[in-house]
Amino acid sequence: MAIHRPGYRLVIGFKKLLTFVRQTFRQAHSPPFNFVFLLLMSLAVHQLTKIYGQQKAVDAISFSVGQGEIVGFLGPNGAGKSTTMKIATGYIPATSGDVVVNGLNVAEQPMQVKKNIGYLPEHNPLYLDMYVHEYLNFIGKVYQIPSAQLKARVREMIALCGLEVEQHKLIGLLSKGYRQRVGLAQALVHNPPVLILDEPTTGLDPNQIMEIRKLIKEVSQNKTVIFSTHIMQEVQALCDRVIIINKGKIVADDWLKNLIGKNENRSVIVVEFKEPVAVADLSSLPGVEKVVEKDNRFYVYALPHCDVRPELIRFASDKNISLTSLRQQENSIEEIFRLLTTEATA
């Protein structure tokens, strides 16, 4: 059911209200798609499931995104990020569950939903034999932008996305950074209230990443943005909030500062030994929550308020093995991501 909503943007003072609504939403056993909820939420996902054969790619997940939020949607490869985004944008159907965008049910009103969403998929599907301005003009016509407004809108997107010099070039001749700019321009040309960006900086060099990050920050001032990425610095630079998905299930959903704050008393010790060490032996030490081995290093996750460094030193001494490196990892979104998405190594 379509809802006519006031055209205001949520300001920072509404965050507590949004948190309350979200908590109510998660606890509900039936879809809480009532007027108040739809008024506040730009995107609402409820009990969403997608099954491919025997594989459950998305497993009954629920979350919501309020107006004006920038949300990082994180997870390992194969966690269900792209599948969720494709369902939310109407490109593939869900097995079960609901997605509502600006008061519109994706399954029931897919064409109207597409008008409310700007979507940049992981693999940017551009027409390489079209010129930049020609392509954006074509996309504008697809979205039925009135002819009287289309030329000005395309010109505005070219300026916003820094494509003035490249606008008369074939897309196939552009660098990957400029192709991503074209992809963002096509996602924005119809002025959608919601942007869904699937790994928009994948494959870019550091300079291009900074440029695209700056562009996303600029265009998000009047939009709701949900984007996926594997670059944790991007999350800290852009996001208000983080949702982490692993094996099709949401394992974290919180404001970024809260997520980091919750782990302030939880330390991660990175340790290396000269001789072979069994992960099971380290996992059995007092105060250790789990251990992950990677690149001949052991990441030892301590329980809250526990300092396991003395235990590690004592372990090396008792076993008569050489401890070559021991340092405490900085508490960061990267370590939180690792903690929530990796299994303890057996």
Characterization of the model:
By secondary structure, the chain is of the alpha/beta class. Helix content is 36%, strand content 26%. The chain is built from 13 helices and 14 strands. It has helices spanning 15-27, 35-40, 81-88, 110-116, 132-142, 147-160, 176-188, 206-219, 232-238, 256-262, 279-283, 309-319, 333-341; strands at residues 41-52, 55-66, 70-74, 96-101, 104-105, 117-120, 194-198, 224-228, 241-246, 249-255, 268-273, 288-294, 297-302, 323-329. A six-stranded mixed sheet has the order 6-7-8-3-9-10, with helices on both faces. A hairpin with a 2-residue loop joins β12 and β13 (297-302). α5 crosses α6 (147-160), α6 runs antiparallel to α7 (176-188) and α7 (176-188) runs parallel beside α8 (206-219). The model is unreliable at 1-14 and 24-33 (pLDDT under 50).
- Poorly predicted tracts of residues: 1-14, 24-33
Could you spell the SSE succession in H and E letters?
HHEEEHEEHEHHHEHEHEEHEHEEHEH
End-to-end Cα distance: 50 Å
Strand proportion: 25-35%
What is the count of β-strands? 14
Q: How does the helix and strand content classify structurally?
A: alpha/beta
Q: How is the quaternary structure best described?
A: single chain
Q: What helical percentage do the residues reach?
A: 25-40%
The biggest sheet, with number of strands, parallel, antiparallel or mixed sense and barrel status, is: 6 strands, mixed
The number of helical elements comes to 13
The coarse overall form would be elongated
Strand order of the largest sheet: 6-7-8-3-9-10
Mean pLDDT: 84
Q: Kindly provide the radius of gyration, computed on alpha-carbon positions and rounded to a whole number of angstroms.
A: 23 Å
